[in-house]
Amino acid sequence: MKRTNLLSFLPFLVLLLLPHLGSKPILASEDVSSYVVYFGSHSHVGVITQDAMDRVRETHYDFLGSFTGSREIATDAIFYSYTKHINGFAAHLDHDLASAISKHPEVVSVFSNKALKLHTTRSWDFMGLEHNSYVPSSSIWRKARFGEDSIIANLDTGVWPESKSFSDEGLGPIPSRWKGICQNQKDATFHCNRKLIGARYFHKGYAAAVGPLNSSFDSPRDIDGHGSHTLSTAGGAFVPGANVFAQGNGTAKGGSPRARVAAYKVCWPPVKGNECYDADVLAAFDAAIHDGADVISVSLGGEPASFFKDSVAIGSFHAAKKGIVVVCSAGNSGPADSTVSNVAPWQITVGASTMDREFASNLILGNGKHYKGQSLAPSSLPHAKFYPIIAALEAKAKNVTASDAQLCKIGSLDPQKAKGKILVCLRGINGRVEKGRAVALAGGVGMVLENTNATGNDLTADSHVLPATQISFKDSLALSRYISQTKKPIAHITPSRTVLGTKPAPVMAAFSSKGPSSVAPEILKPDITAPGVSVIAAYTGAVSPTNEKFDPRRLLFNAVSGTSMSCPHVSGIAGLLKTRYPSWSPAAIRSAIMTTATTMDDIPGPILNSTYMKATPFSFGAGHVRPNLAVNPGLVYDSGIKDYLNFLCSLGYNASQISVFSGKNFACSSRKASLYNLNYPSITVPNLSSSKVTVSRTVKNVGRPSTYTVRVNNPEGVYVAVKPTSLNFTKVGEQKTFKVTIAKRKGKVAKGYVFGDLVWSDKKHRVRSPVVVKL
User: Fold this and answer.
1) Which of 196, 197, 418, 562 has its CA 20 to 30 A from that of 440?
2) How far from chain centre, in Å, is Cα 349?
3) Contacting residues for 467 by C-beta, under 8 A, at least 6 apart
């Protein structure tokens, strides 16, 4: 695709402003940007007609015109009107005008059209063919009819419709409730079918930031790979013989392989690392809700922000009001604490962990030592042939920094020093595959990628352009000692091969963003973790598996890592549950997924992080997803829109804002509700300042009549008491409330967060909730 010259299209708009109270027109500054003006919900009743949407659009023009003094100026400034379920508009405004609008009593919030990011690591570092318990059993899939009745929408880079993962073979007619379209008027090569039932694109917010776009942008086609990968992970059809360079061969399938899917393209070629914009995300949410999606999968996000100024949180709220499950990626800013994004309680937030499959490519040294590595490099060194191995710094070219040479940046290596050797490059900053290209350009025969202390044991299998492998931080230290202490160090890199049943698994990915939430620490985020490392799924035919311009290779399937990849695993499971239990609320589905998760690996032992230290709920939430148990959770923690509004009241949001936000005459209670009493499947007390705190929870029986008893694993330094300790259910749908009192133990206790859990069990079901307390 031809790239627009972004620097030549810096948008600006000069507005003649007439203040709302009426004074002489003033000339706005040229510091014009794009903003979202958010009014909350619409008052539509029944079917939303085109006339009703047109009337909303006109009111938006009138509203902005009352500030600009000219309806014509307002009409030109607005580039989106959200007219279906989300009430608001996106427009070119200057800061003063945006500030003035934000003070209007009918406005919930005004926020800049911020840039968001896709949550994939690709071959860069930013500091379906699953094996372990993720895969639903055949009986579970059959009971849920492979998700056949569910419609999964994906907000991403669009879709590659030619992929076999989106074949409609064996599917019946498109569900009559579907209102979506196949927006292919300007791309005659793009086609939808009974599987891929809809596709739209949204780029006005992107254009507002980068400038006018050419006609090649007018298509939902995926030219990046990310959207096809995530959508096929959530709902891709069965495709035998899927593989990446002959590795991981098997049948590709999404979590809901017979679900209908729809693509909403909101992400575009990155500008300064950002590719998705708030205004487009809101437009896509508004469309997906109206079109009839059951599950919306969102593998993108931005910096944590106030819920009223977060496009994903806003869109998710309106989706939840319509009973739509929204699943979001947690972000790739780990392993630092408080980096998790998409933290609203009405979202399911997903971290990333490994599976018990690796693409092994080991490093053998001249002293006989073997070090475990991973790679998907299709090329290999001659069998058992050893080559000289050196640190990349030893091949530093003239006039470049030592740091650039260590990182193996393009042009940083001297061919006379690198030719015929294996070079050891440091992970970080520039692309992992790009490092290998730098080595190849300098005449090197292979590359070893060394992990840093931060990335620990986190190994990613990349489609390198030369024989290469990546090794852990511990092994990197041993390799460095060998090179420095050996007169003529030599090494061999073994060819890539697929290894199943690896231990330990799952392990938390180093990149996976962690809690506690910086917006609402009373809610544990992420909620859950799922496979997000070296996930094989469908890809675009427009770019290489590395997404590097220098790489001419094309693949039907690709292995990619990120919370972008773990998110659609859970979206697919949500699709199965939505088909199996169509009356369940989004909160009930989230509860089923969370309370049946595991915190143990396959050794067995507690789930570890990338440095092989014990991970905490701030990494994995309730644990690693287990779909076979989620389909029969026994009890669920249910909640609805009123519960979320009360939670916002407790957070201190303005009562009038909440009323407008909800679209109903909702009023915060005069008695402030406890932040801890949102009926969430986890319990978090971020500041146990008093001697004790009591929280309330309600569980609903979704299984057979049974009696449940409670067991508590107390966090260190804390005593947890539950009343009553037994709950007897006589029918489906019956609800019971219990109280949990959390108290400090007497004596000296360590400061900081401590972790435990609370489990209700009837000997058949085990309904587990994490308990997180800060002392």
Assistant:
1) 562
2) 7
3) 377, 379, 380, 381, 445, 446, 447, 493, 495
Contact predicate 440/131, CB 8 Å = no
How many whole angstroms separate alpha carbon 286 and alpha carbon 272?
27
Please give the average pLDDT of every successive group of 10 residues along the chain, which has 775 residues.
27 28 35 91 89 96 96 97 97 96 94 92 44 56 76 96 97 96 96 98 96 95 97 96 96 95 96 89 98 98 92 97 97 94 98 96 97 96 96 96 96 97 95 95 97 87 96 96 96 96 95 96 97 96 93 95 96 96 97 98 95 96 96 97 92 82 77 86 92 94 97 96 98 98 87 96 97 96
Going by the DSSP 8-state scheme, the letter that residue 624 receives in this structure is B
Predicted TM-score (pTM) of this structure: 0.93
757, HSE (Cβ side, Cα atoms, 13 Å): 20
Instruction: State whether residue 383 is helix, strand or coil.
Output: coil
Residues 327, 574 contacting (CB under 8 angstroms):
yes
Determine the Cα angle at 593 with ends 592 and 594, to 5°.
Answer: 95
102 is catalytic: no
Three-state helix/strand/coil letters over 661-695: HHCCCCCCCCCCCCHHHCCCCCEEECCCCCCEEEE
Burial 203-214 (b: 16+ CB within 10 A, else e): bbbbbbbbbebe
Q: How far apart are the C-alpha atoms of 516 and 524, rounded to whole Å? A: 7
Rounded to the nearest 10 degrees, the angle between the axes of helix 95-102 and helix 50-68 is 110
> Would you state the structure tokens that stand for residue 600, as one six-digit string?
């143990």
Alpha helices (runs of H) in 543-671, residue ranges in sequence order: 563-580, 586-595, 617-620, 627-630, 641-651, 655-662
In the set 94, 125, 149, 156, the catalytic residue is 156
pLDDT tens, residue by residue, 159-215: 999 999 999 999 999 999 999 999 999 999 999 999 999 999 999 999 999 999 999
| 284-287 long-range contacts, CB within 8 A, separation 24+ | 284/155, 284/200, 284/202, 284/315, 285/86, 285/155, 285/311, 285/314, 285/315, 285/316, 285/318, 285/319, 286/82, 286/83, 286/84, 286/85, 286/86, 286/315, 286/318, 287/84, 287/180, 287/200, 287/202
Radius of gyration for the alpha carbons in the chain, expressed in angstroms and rounded = 27
**H/E segment holding residue 737:** strand 735-744
Contact 144, 631 (CB under 8 A): yes
Catalytic entry in 60, 203, 226, 765: 226
Gap between the Cα atoms of 503 and 603, Å rounded: 6
Q: How far apart, in Å, are the Cα atoms of 514 and each of 116, 343, 616, 647?
A: 18, 11, 9, 22
Q: What is the DSSP letter of 640?
A: -
Query: CA 463 → CA 247, 352, 555, distances in Å?
Result: 11, 20, 11
Of the residues 167, 232, 472, 564, which is catalytic? 564
User: Is 156 designated active site?
Assistant: yes
**pLDDT tens digits along 220-272:** 999 999 999 999 999 999 999 999 999 999 999 999 999 999 999 999 998 87
Indicate the SS3 state at residue 278: helix
What SS3 string covers 340-375?
A: CCCCCCCCEEEEEECCCEEEECCEEECCCCEECEEC
Q: Find out whether 219 and 1 touch, Cβ atoms under 8 Å.
A: no
Chain position carrying tokens 């300007």: 186
| C-alpha distances out from residue 469 to 371, 602, 731, Å | 10, 25, 57
341 is catalytic: no
- Farthest-apart Cα atoms in the chain, separation: 84
Cα–Cα distance, 700 to 770 (Å, whole number): 18
